[in-house]
Write a structure and sequence with these properties.
Two copies of one chain form a homodimer. With 215 residues, the first copy, chain A, is an all-alpha fold. The first copy, chain A, has helices at 7-31, 38-45, 49-55, 59-82, 89-106, 108-115, 121-148, 156-175, 185-201. In chain A, helix 2 crosses helix 3. The radius of gyration of chain A is 20 Å and the shape is elongated. The termini of chain A are far apart. At the A-B interface, helix 7, helix 8 and helix 9 of A face helix 7, helix 8 and helix 9 of B. The structure holds a DNA duplex (30 and 30 nucleotides).
Chain lengths: 215, 215
DNA sequence: GCAACAGCTGAATCGTGGTTCACTTCATTC
DNA sequence: GAATGAAGTGAACCACGATTCAGCTGTTGC
């Protein structure tokens, strides 16, 4: 007898898998989920279509993973700024809102795919988790604010969800296929409007939001 | 020669067409877009599948019309309460919000389909128009409020969109497949939270919203 | 070198629904 | 009641894209 998988071959296998994930992600980020059929992704990764199935159960499973990872990155970015130490809850909500909006505007096709593009049911389930993650992020900030007395009592779960929905909806227009560019000034105004909206919604005067550079 | 379409035959034709529309609508309202294949709809309307194609270009065209009509009904209902005469803009925003939310909660499967369920691209375009219609409805109320001085200046288009998104997102959880019932008390609390949210968002103290019965 | 085996290949296959169309039914006119 | 044509029928058809699999390639251990 002879042969046993070795470090090298396992590394290659991993690399192939990663390459497929990246190709799938890039395809979605560039042209949306609708454009991401298995053949296209495989070609982009430089492998045969069959290879995709040696690494993933199904197309759904592949894209569920793609969505999960991309979504997690977004959640992490927002969570990072929302953790801003020694700041009021209002400031952190503003920062989270701003990051959410800026990142969406900077990667509109991906954001559109993550937030609203029609996808298959398995991937849709992943999206729901993603949105729910954002709800929770905002809700826990709000809980903190209510607990400390900074904010009025409220149903923080509902308000968290509403904030996420507000951002997503207001961004979808600008994210939409047709909407090309106008790429700097209008973005600033939109971001400012959304931050203001969020602060109003949580019942806080704006107290002029500081400038910073999450993006 | 002999034969000419007559009033009677045209009426029948119209009735068939209407029956198909109704069957398609009811199917979506009962079990969602995903369940609404042509065979099912035809059976429900009591006609053969081929008949569907004598009345509609394609499945997309049929469901685009179904969505258009259902969406228009929703828009009309909200517009009706938002036209409440001799009321402040804030009161009318509150009323519109309440109607939007209550109607969605009373017809959750339909609302889910209209608002977020994955659909084909042609139908998705119809959904965008629907959401845009709601944006405009809220935005024009806000314009009025800003013009009269009742509200602070704001980007009414953005705030209109954000309000619609907030409502949709906060409702999707309760609308979701899994979420069964709890059908009265929780609804009231949710509606109240959303109205409060909307009033905060437009920067108005609540001034205790009056009770009424749009649904 | 060669046996053993994993990973890769990509054309062929398969499933799912939308769509078609040759035929049937039925109302209409003379 | 026979000719005419529109409306309706539903089994067959077809497009599309996910999935499979028989063979091929490259690596490993002796």
């Amino acid at each position: 007898m002879a042969y046993r998988p070795t470090e090298l071959t396992e590394a290659r296998r991993r690399a192939t898998r990663t390459g497929i994930l990246k190709a799938a992600h890039d395809q979605v980020a560039e042209a949306g989920y609708a454009s991401a059929d298995v053949k296209t992704v495989a070609a982009r990764a430089g492998v045969a279509t069959g290879t995709v199935y040696r690494h993933f159960e199904s197309k759904s499973a592949l894209f569920a993973e793609v969505f999960r990872e991309a979504a997690q990155r977004e959640l992490d970015m927002v969570a990072a700024v929302a953790a801003w130490p020694d700041r009021t809850v209002a400031e952190r909500i503003a920062a989270g809102t701003e990051t959410f909006a800026r990142r969406a505007l900077n990667a509109p096709v991906l954001a559109y795919a993550l937030l609203v593009e029609p996808v298959d049911p398995v991937v849709e389930a992943e999206r729901l988790r993603f949105r729910h993650g954002h709800h929770l992020g905002f809700a826990s900030l709000l809980d903190e604010g209510v607990a400390s007395g900074e904010l009025e009592p409220m149903d923080t779960a509902v308000v968290g969800a509403a904030l996420v929905g507000a951002l997503a909806e207001a961004l979808v227009g600008p994210l939409s296929p047709s909407f090309n560019g106008n790429s700097r000034r209008p973005h600033e105004a939109l971001v400012a409007s959304l931050v203001q909206f969020a602060l109003n919604a949580i019942h806080k005067e704006d107290a002029d939001v500081p400038e910073h550079a999450h993006a």
